[in-house]
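Input chain follows. Return structure tokens only.
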Amino acid sequence: MNSRSDCVLVFGKVVYPDGSQYVGSFVKGLPHGRGLFAFQRGGEYEGDFLHGKKHGQGTLRYPGGSVYQGQFHRGQKHGLGAMRFADATT
């Protein structure tokens, strides 16, 4: 069945059993659109999501201070992007 209610975009926050958290928009219970995902062991991803995966433009901050800013495709770094390491090298 394909009704308009299948595509409702909602905004909210979820805390997962492992302690990671997501704040942003959801479609069908999955992160979809813009959001912020904070990993349980540190680090975070802020950017676009599609069907629960990093997809589009985003910034991935690692626990040690390194930062990747660029494109993602189906959850993986893909396309144009730049990595800045914690020691300020690129």
